[in-house]
């Protein structure tokens, strides 16, 4: 398995007005399960095509184990890909499909058969070896497609382009589990592209968030969740995402509507965006609670998610000043009620021009390609 | 429903039944038919000229399919799939399909003439003997060239449409596998082209089997009867000799023959699908 590095990769399609990828820097150590998270139009597919060699980048380099492969065609890169729908050879049986990448490389028959059967057994499709794709379910077909991607021993990296898209919802979690266990067992470098954060956060050790052709941040799920370096990451990750409110830094504190909510020592004064996750704040009812402090707001809706210790918990949506916020808490307030929002000050994150404000080093997360704030 | 039934009955069913009726009668004139049962059928099947025409017809259809299907596939694969020139190419290759069939015959009649035709004169300049009015081989060659020129585009366009329906990931996966051009054709394209090719072959089989205008204009069935196919033989009998009984029997046999061939081809393809 191979270490993949993208060095300042940019790409513009032939007739396009603007770059689809703008100076992407990314590093995936050998054997890592890496996810590329981004919404439609963020450049995910282009990045995949640059990695697989189907597109040669307009600028920058692609390095496999330190070797520049930017201009090397796909067939010589030893890359395999799993697509959004199962891509199999319809006229061949399952075992012939699995053997095909080996057959093309003139691997002798018995060895081909051995590897094909081994990967089929690993993916629990060994009893389908003699069947044609038309007889298989979507789930089984995608398993065979994954098998085809893993059957060659000299594979550098496996690329996955939203592989759960076509599979029936009931079997998505099964396929996810198979992918994760196979990745861990074979130590395969896998790059998983998706717009679904749950898929990314559950599959990958390291996630790169892609936005408008650039990587905003790379890090573990925990890092992206607790220390997002850009507003887009903060809002995209989490369900619901981070609340981002207009505020300012004055006299060494973050203020929303004039009220101090968190310390901001060492940061330049001025307008900024104040961010806090729904999990880091709570709304308490105002009525009958004269001692309570916090930002005044009004509850607009409740969404029940379950119970904890017998109490209903869920998402409270409230109107704070001109903005709508979400809070994850025990549902002990009612829609229409006046509440006070209490924020855990030490977890608040400030953003200016989209980027996180911090004392000392600039935006963290390796691979960030934007200038530090 | 009734208007449709009436129209179909009037234009198809009643004429067909009339032909079947005639095939069982000896028609001296429209007022005096004589029932003769299957005699015309027996006579037709024993007629050496009918058999000769049938053999020529089968040979022609087989040759036409053997050339036009692979050539059509080849052309379709060479056409650009996208870009501004793609529609231009499609229109250019479609042009032969738009020419009236008798004009096709006339074009080739002149084109292949050894005195003033571009093709014929060029061949003569090379020192080769070429005369499609006197040589059987030359007549057949000209006939086949004409048909290929006329109809290959149909196969090419159908196959082109079939190829356009193959989504990019199939080609990308084959590229990542390292498949050769031939392997891409055999494992990605050909399986998807099956249904399109069945239609193309059926159309060419039926159309080539009833071909009339072009060979009639080009060679008139000659030299001798070297290029007289079934349709022309039938027309001579029915219109020229006004022998309605045997002509009707011939028609019915002709019709059944085409239906039989198409059914055999189609069901063998369907049986393959089920496996």
Gyration radius of chain A, to the nearest Å?
A: 25 Å
Structural class of chain A: alpha+beta
Find the structural class of chain B using helix and strand composition.
Answer: mainly alpha
Give me the CATH architecture of the domain at 59-244 in chain B, please: Orthogonal Bundle
Coarse morphology of chain B: globular
Our count of domains of chain A comes out at: 2
How would you describe the oligomerization state of the chains in this entry?
A: heterodimer
State mean pLDDT of chain B (0 to 100 scale). Answer: 88
H/E element string of chain B?
HEEHHHHHHHHHHH
Helicity level of chain A:
10-25%
Mean pLDDT across every amino acid position of chain A:
88
**What gross morphology of chain A would you assign?**
elongated
Outline the biggest β-sheet of chain B.
2 strands, antiparallel
The main β sheet of chain A shows up as: 6 strands, mixed
Query: Which fold does the CATH topology of the domain at 59-244 in chain B refer to?
Result: MetI-like fold
CATH topology of the largest domain in chain A, by name, is Rossmann fold
* Low-confidence segments of chain A: 360-373
For the termini of chain A, the CA-CA separation is 36 Å
Task: Give the strand order, joined by hyphens, for the main sheet of chain B.
Answer: 1-2
Q: Just give the CATH class of the largest domain in chain A.
A: Alpha Beta
Summed up, the helix count of chain B is 12
Description:
The complex is a heterodimer of chains A (373) and B (275). Chain A has two domains: 4-226, P-loop containing nucleotide triphosphate hydrolases (Rossmann fold); 240-356, OB fold (Dihydrolipoamide Acetyltransferase, E2P), CATH 2.40.50.140. Helix content of chain A is 23%, strand content 34%. Chain A has helices spanning 44-52, 94-104, 109-122, 138-150, 169-186, 197-203, 221-226, 231-236; strands at 4-11, 21-28, 33-37, 59-64, 67-68, 79-82, 157-161, 190-194, 206-211, 214-219, 243-250, 253-256, 259-263, 270-276, 281-285, 295-308, 311-320, 323-330, 338-343, 349-352, 355-356. In chain A, the strands form four sheets. In chain A, strands 6-7-8-3-9-10 form a six-stranded mixed β-sheet, sandwiched between helices. In chain A, a hairpin with a 2-residue loop joins strand 16 and strand 17 (311-320). In chain A, helix 2 (94-104) packs across helix 3 (109-122), helix 2 packs parallel to helix 4 (138-150) and helix 4 (138-150) runs parallel beside helix 5. The two termini of chain A are 36 Å apart. Chain B contains twelve helices and two strands; from the N terminus they run αββααααααααααα. In chain B, helix 7 crosses helix 9 and helix 11 runs antiparallel to helix 12. Chain B is globular, with a radius of gyration of 23 Å. The A-B interface holds A 52, 54, 73-75, 79-81, 83-85, 87, 89-92, 100-101, 104-105, 148 and B 169-170, 172-173, 175-180, 183, 187-188, 190-192.
């Amino acid at each position: 398995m191979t270490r993949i590095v993208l060095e300042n990769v940019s790409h513009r399609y032939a007739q396009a007005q603007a770059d689809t990828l703008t100076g992407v820097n990314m590093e995936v150590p050998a054997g890592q399960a890496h996810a590329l998270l981004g919404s439609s139009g963020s450049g995910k597919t282009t990045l995949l095509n640059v990695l697989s060699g189907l597109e040669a980048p307009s600028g920058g380099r692609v390095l496999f184990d330190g070797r520049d492969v930017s201009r090397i065609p796909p067939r010589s890169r030893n890359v395999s890909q799993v697509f959004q729908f199962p891509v199999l050879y319809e006229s061949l049986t399952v075992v012939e499909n699995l053997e095909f990448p080996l057959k093309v490389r003139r691997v002798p028959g018995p060895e081909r058969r051995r590897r094909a059967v081994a990967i089929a057994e690993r993916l629990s499709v060994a009893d389908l070896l003699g069947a044609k794709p038309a007889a298989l379910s979507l789930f089984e077909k995608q398993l065979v497609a994954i098998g085809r991607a893993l059957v060659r021993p000299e594979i550098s990296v496996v690329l996955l382009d939203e592989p759960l898209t076509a599979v029936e919802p009931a079997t998505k979690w099964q396929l996810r589990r198979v992918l994760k266990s196979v990745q861990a067992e074979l130590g395969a470098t896998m790059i998983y592209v998706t717009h679904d954060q749950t898929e990314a956060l559950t599959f990958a050790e390291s996630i790169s968030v892609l936005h408008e052709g650039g990587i905003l941040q790379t890090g573990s799920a925990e890092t992206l969740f607790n220390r997002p370096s850009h507003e887009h990451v903060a809002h995209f990750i989490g369900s619901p995402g981070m609340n981002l409110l207009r505020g300012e830094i004055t006299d060494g504190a973050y203020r929303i509507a004039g009220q101090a909510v968190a310390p901001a020592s060492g940061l330049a004064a001025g307008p900024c965006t104040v961010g806090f996750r729904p999990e880091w704040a709570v709304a308490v009812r105002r009525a009958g609670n004269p001692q309570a402090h916090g930002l005044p707001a009004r509850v607009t809706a409740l969404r029940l998610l379950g119970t904890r210790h017998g109490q209903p918990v869920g998402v409270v949506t409230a109107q704070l000043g001109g903005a709508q916020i979400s809070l994850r808490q025990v549902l002990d307030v009612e829609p229409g009620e006046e509440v006070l929002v209490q924020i855990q000050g030490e977890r608040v994150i400030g953003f200016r021009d989209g980027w996180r404000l911090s004392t000392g080093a600039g935006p963290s997360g390796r691979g960030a390609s934007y200038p530090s704030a | 429903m009734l208007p449709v039934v009436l129209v179909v009955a009037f234009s198809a069913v009643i004429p067909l039944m009339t032909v079947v009726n005639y095939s069982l009668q000896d028609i001296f004139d429209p007022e005096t038919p004589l029932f003769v049962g299957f005699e015309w059928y027996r006579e037709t099947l024993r007629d050496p000229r009918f058999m000769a025409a049938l053999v020529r017809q089968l040979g022609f259809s087989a040759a036409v399919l053997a050339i036009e299907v692979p050539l059509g596939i080849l052309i379709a694969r060479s056409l650009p799939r996208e870009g501004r020139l793609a529609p231009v190419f499609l229109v250019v290759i479609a042009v032969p399909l738009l020419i009236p069939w008798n004009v096709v015959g006339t074009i080739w009649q002149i084109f292949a003439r050894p005195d003033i035709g571009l093709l014929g004169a060029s061949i003569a300049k090379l020192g080769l003997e070429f005369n499609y009015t006197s040589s059987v081989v030359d007549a057949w060659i000209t006939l086949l060239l004409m048909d290929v020129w006329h109809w290959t585009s149909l196969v090419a366009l159908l196959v082109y449409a079939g190829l356009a329906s193959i989504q990019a990931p199939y080609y990308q996966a084959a590229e990542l596998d390292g498949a050769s051009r031939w392997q891409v054709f055999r494992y990605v394209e050909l399986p998807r082209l099956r249904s399109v090719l069945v239609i193309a072959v059926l159309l060419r089989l039926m159309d080539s089997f009833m071909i009339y205008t072009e060979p009639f204009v080009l060679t008139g069935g000659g030299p001798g009867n070297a290029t007289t196919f079934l349709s022309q033989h039938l027309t001579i009998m029915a219109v020229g000799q006004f022998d309605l009984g045997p002509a009707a029997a011939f028609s019915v046999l002709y019709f059944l023959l085409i239906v039989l061939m198409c059914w055999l081809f189609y069901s063998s393809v369907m049986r393959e699908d089920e496996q």
